[in-house]
C-alpha cells in the first residue's frame, strides 16, 4: 500500500532504486539508495541523473543526461542520450540498436539519495542467487 502510494505521488513505477555498479562514481557509489520522481510536465535536462529501462532488459540503468532533442511543438517529446559519469563512452551501445532513448524509457529523475543503504538489497539478492531460489518465488 505504501509502495503504491509512493509510486502515485512520484508518478513513478519504481520510486526507489539501488545503484548496482560503479558507472556513476563519484556522484553515486555502488549500494547507494536513490529516490526518483517523474514529473509528467517537466522535460529532462542535460545534467539530470536519470534511471531508464529498455524493453527486454530487467535491470534499470542510472546515468546522466548528456544530450537532449525535443520537438518545438511539444518539448516533452524528447530524444535523450545518456552516459555514466565514470564511463568513457556514452550509452549508445546499450540502447539495443536505438539511436536515442525516448521519454517512455525513463523511469525517473534522481532527486535524493542515501549512501550505502542499498547494500542490504544487494546482499539479499546475492543470497537468493547463492541459495538457488527461483526469482518467481521472491
What's the topology here?
Elements: H1 2-10, E1 16-18, E2 33-37, E3 49-52, E4 61-70, E5 78-83, E6 101-102, E7 106-114, H2 119-131
Antiparallel strand pairs: 1-2, 2-7, 3-4, 3-7, 4-5, 5-6
Strand content: 25-35%
Instruction: Provide the helix percentage.
Output: 10-25%
Gross morphology is globular
Question: On the 0-100 scale, what is the average pLDDT?
Answer: 87
Largest sheet: 7 strands, antiparallel
Descriptive terms for the model:
138 residues, alpha+beta, seven-stranded antiparallel beta sheet, 2 helices, 7 strands, 16% helix, 28% strand
Walk me through what this model shows.
The protein has 138 residues and is of the alpha+beta class. The protein is 16% helix and 28% strand. The radius of gyration is 16 Å and the shape is globular. The two termini are 18 Å apart.
The gist of it:
The chain has 138 residues and is an alpha+beta fold. The chain is 16% helix and 28% strand.
Amino acid at each position: 500500500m505504501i509502495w503504491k502510494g509512493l509510486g502515485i505521488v512520484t508518478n513513478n513505477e519504481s520510486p526507489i532504486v539501488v545503484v548496482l555498479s560503479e558507472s556513476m562514481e563519484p556522484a553515486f557509489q555502488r549500494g547507494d539508495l536513490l529516490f526518483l520522481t517523474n514529473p509528467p510536465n517537466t522535460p529532462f535536462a542535460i545534467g539530470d541523473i536519470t534511471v531508464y529501462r529498455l524493453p527486454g532488459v530487467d535491470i534499470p540503468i542510472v546515468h546522466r543526461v548528456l544530450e537532449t532533442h525535443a520537438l518545438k511543438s511539444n518539448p516533452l517529446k524528447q530524444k535523450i542520450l545518456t552516459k555514466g559519469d565514470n564511463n568513457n563512452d556514452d550509452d549508445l551501445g546499450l540502447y539495443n540498436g536505438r539511436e536515442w532513448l525516448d521519454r517512455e524509457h525513463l523511469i525517473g529523475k534522481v532527486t535524493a539519495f542515501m549512501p550505502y543503504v542499498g547494500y542490504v538489497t544487494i546482499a539479499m539478492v546475492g543470497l537468493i542467487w547463492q541459495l538457488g531460489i527461483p526469482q518467481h518465488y521472491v
